[in-house]
Automatic annotation (TrEMBL):
Keywords, comma-separated and alphabetical: Signal
Segments forming domain Solute-binding protein family: 83-418
Family annotation (PANTHER family): MONOACYL PHOSPHATIDYLINOSITOL TETRAMANNOSIDE-BINDING PROTEIN LPQW-RELATED (PTHR30290:SF65), PERIPLASMIC BINDING COMPONENT OF ABC TRANSPORTER (PTHR30290)
TM annotation in the entry: none
Keyword Signal recorded: yes
Protein name: ABC transporter substrate-binding protein
Pfam family, one: SBP_bac_5
Signal sequence segment: 1-27
Amino acid sequence: MRLPARLLPVAAVTAASALLTGCFAGAESSAGPSANGDGKRVRLAMMQPPRSGLSPLSDDAFKLSRWSTAETLVKLDADGDARPALATKWEQSGRSWTFEIRDGVTFHDGSELTAEAVVRSLTRAATASPKPRILDGVELTAKAEDGRVVVTTAAEDPLVPQRLSSPQLAVLAARAYAGKTVNPVGAGTGPFELTKVNGTSSATLDRYDGYWGGRAKSPGIDVKFVPDGTARAAALRSGEADIVEAVPVSQAAVLDQDLITEVPMPRTNTLYLNTEKGVFKDAGLRAAAREAVDAQSIVEGVYEGRADVAEGLLGPALPWAAGLRSPVRRAEPGDPSGRSVTIGTFTDRAELPEVAAALQQQLQKAGFRVKLEIREYATIESDALAGEFDAFVLSRATVLDSGDPAAYLYSDFGSDGSFNISQLAEKSVDAALDKASGAKAGAARRKAVIEAEAAVLATDAAVPMLHERVIQGDAAGVTGAAHDPRERELVTAATYVK
């Protein structure tokens, strides 16, 4: 039985603190005030270590973005609309978009940002294998023309600017592409230069005084990767970290409430069911699993009420979604008696093993025989994508890349989607996804997105359970840390420690 956070044994807290002892040692001398009177360096405890050597073509791109070291042509505002970044303006003509490149920008190695540099980065991403997921289903080419960048897609795409806001399409200096893999060290344009990476344990960034947007308030960032959630919370409690991302719900109650911020996330905790093989190839047994899930008890028992029960794949972070939904027709539940299934999930998000354990009990009560397989994400992702599990529990951001959920729906549920854990190949779903992907931004697109969500839900390939809220810890001396639902910003040029 799970102990309430406030009743955790002293030994557990002590052990967690021990994991952090010396965590930021070695940065101690640089953590103090800089010689010119600026704030101290920011000590940052992050949840997941790099999985792909910090390549921007992987999910590691979001670390580069959250450290304000790599930048994109476009950024998104709070409403998900495109705003200037390394590009100052753009216009569409059919399948092509022309972007004006900002003057006076230099990379961290001193080289100049040019249209040719932008084309090099976009071309590397567009021709990568696998592609960054923001380009799932998109054929994109880029060329330099009179100092501007012309981006052309195979089909007219109303979301090209939003796509180019994805951290996976960051623009880096030529040096980043010298080898077979993309190396972002010393190659960004942001207010902080990535100067050192120590495998999966730490990273160091120093202020880049030539930043086009103005000098950062902090002299640098010292990053430690701390997968253990209790240890991250202990780092905030002990003062060893200034900013802690993804504080586990189980730890939030024992922290000073003035030091934590809770933000509804466009992130859904979903049970993905394998539609290609095994027990859940049967639509009736998928329906039986869906009926067995009691999301409310998971919200109360695992998340201590710090989450929202899901009514669909898209949650309250997209407030327009609920008002557009209609009832979904689904298959009738079959008889699961004695059918054996394996549910996979990972340890990197502290709540997921508990969610899996709760699901095990709920499905067993319905008649299934359930085995759990729980590992670190780095060792389980490939098996999940290959369809090696009957079911998989995943916490998934729904507007991570473009600010538009159509990309997430295509990636996770399209026949050609790069993150199709459910192995779903359904013509009606593909047709709805194509319609949503091609719709113009605005009311028509939102309506098409909800229709695509309904098409997915009708298959029971995914059982959305809850929408998460992110809990971030900021020490008392931290000023200007970002609290970003999209998980793109964290330490910015305005962030410093008093």
